[in-house]
Amino acid sequence: MTTLNGKVALVTGGARGIGAAIALRLAQDGADVAITYENSADRAAVVAKQVEALGRRALAIRADSADPAAVRDAVDRTATALGRLDILVNNAAVFLVGPVTELGDDEVERTLAVNVRAPFLAAQAAARHLTEGGRIISIGSNVGERAVFPGLSLYSMSKTALIGLTRGLARELGPRGITANLVNPGPTDTDTNPADGPNAAAIAGFTALGRFAAPADIAATVAHLAAPEAGYVTGAVVNVDGGFTG
User: Fold this and answer.
1) CA atoms in the 13 A half-sphere facing the CB of 226
2) Name one GO molecular function term (predicted).
């Protein structure tokens, strides 16, 4: 597929899991891809080589999403090194859970910094580079709409905030032909939430399909929203969750 030929994408947290799958799918569809990572340098290098093996340009940027300067710099470096920026995928996140009465200030601050402030700052920086046809796609979570287990209050709050961000961006950037959408994955088979993990059966049981998604399932929806065919979709919240919130 070449629907994204000539486009440049930045995927935050693109060294592993859903982020890596998104980066590779966008490359398969024709985009040059930059990714950010914090600690997974080896994995980031592998993803970059896989992108290059598809005939696309790749850029791996070390950036802590809790650092505002690093977030802005990653956006600007992508546009400078790859010549432009067309697609921003806000994927980087932290998953800090626990009883609401026991979560400390550091956990609250890091969750809000990475899961809420960073997507805003990345979108703000990207808006200075994006032109007509630009895309901002954020990755939320099914628990932003349905927290079925205790201990999710902080994380759920941070992901719900992306709904407001997405709808605000859609309204503000729409006149420039730039869309903003939110994808909420359901249970997805990754290193941090494996489909054969100790709680996997219970988690899968909350879905209508009774199983986990593969990262590629989430990436396919992101690729659709990034494509020209989705140019009239904006401000949308797309649940790719196997019926978890249905």
Assistant:
1) 35
2) oxidoreductase activity
Judged by DSSP in three states, 111 sits in helix
pLDDT band for position 2 (cuts 50, 70, 90): confident
The size of the chain, in residues, is 246
Strand order across the 135-139 sheet = 58-62, 32-37, 8-11, 87-90, 135-139, 179-185, 237-240
Residue-level pLDDT at 84: 98
Catalytic, 155? Answer yes
Domains and CATH numbers, the chain: 8-234 (3.40.50.720)
Q: For 84-99, how does the pLDDT look when each residue is reduced to its tens digit (9 = 90+)? A: 999 999 999 999 999 9
Query: What pLDDT, on a 0 to 100 scale, did the predictor assign at position 41?
Result: 96
Which of 137-167 are b and which e, b meaning 16 or more Cβ less than 10 Å from the residue's Cβ? bbbbbbbbbbbeeeebebbbbbbbbbbebbb
Cα angle vertex 9, ends 242, 215, to 5°?
Answer: 25
